[in-house]
Amino acid sequence: MTTATARRSDRRISPVFVGIVAVMAVTGWATWTGFAEQPGLAVFLFVTAAWIVSLCLHEYAHARTALHSGDISIGAKGYLTLNPLKYTHALLSIVLPVLFVIMGGIGLPGGAVFIEHGRIQGRWKHSLISAAGPLTNVLFAVVCTAPFWLDVLDGVPAEFQFALAFLAMLQVTAAILNFLPVPGLDGYGVIEPWLSHKIRRQVEPFAPFGLLAVFGLLWIPEVNGVFFDAVDAMLRGLGIDEIRTYCGQNLYRFWTETDQFCSVSQ
């Protein structure tokens, strides 16, 4: 009985996650209805809460896939509760990605749930576990962009469109960055099981610095330009133009001067 109760509690959705979803819902409603006196603040809270929700789902996807692949220790670690405070590195998983959104409007990959890979047999399972997280970002991006490519935005307030466009951009950037085959990122985790033992040993010392290297490269104007050109091209293919993403980021940064063009509902 005690074991059964413990197992149920391992999978019970955390009140912390429910609270974050509630903030997302209320501020999304405030953005949609124009209830908030400061739409920028409502957009900020809505996008930030939705971004944290996506980070939680990203890590949950890793954990759930690992559980079904053989790592039965996942539940006891609290990863199935969607509680961001249970992650191995809550700072890397939540705080830093949110700070990067605030500072630069980029969906920085977070990390991580600790998976006992020794319990998992088969290279395909290891690859799928790594791919599950960024695939969640892809799914989130599809959901955010669906109203645009389905052309069902008639009557939707401009501020909400802008917020949704900016959130979609964050998901696209997170998916692209996560799928890069760089040590320390999920993309490398997808291909790592297929590499020789010698190559894995040689690459292993660089894993803690992979994300820092990517971030450093993005500071190079030429690399940054190519990266965001690719992001914009994907968003345009999904029906979101640069004006909407620009206005979404402009409203999100409510503590700066708001572009008058973005403050007028269209």
Automatic annotation (TrEMBL):
GO molecular function: metal ion binding; metallopeptidase activity
Primary subcellular site in the record, as a coarse category: membrane
TM region positions: 12-32, 41-61, 90-115, 127-150, 162-182, 203-220
Species name: Streptomyces montanus
Cofactor(s) the protein needs: Zn(2+)
InterPro entries hit by this protein: Metallopeptidase_M50B (IPR052348), Rip2-like (IPR044537)
UniProt superkingdom: Bacteria
Protein name: Site-2 protease family protein
GO biological process: proteolysis
Membrane topology: Multi-pass membrane protein
UniProt-annotated location(s): Cell membrane
Alphabetical UniProt keywords: Cell membrane, Hydrolase, Membrane, Metal-binding, Metalloprotease, Protease, Transmembrane, Transmembrane helix, Zinc
Family: Belongs to the peptidase M50B family.
GO cellular component: plasma membrane
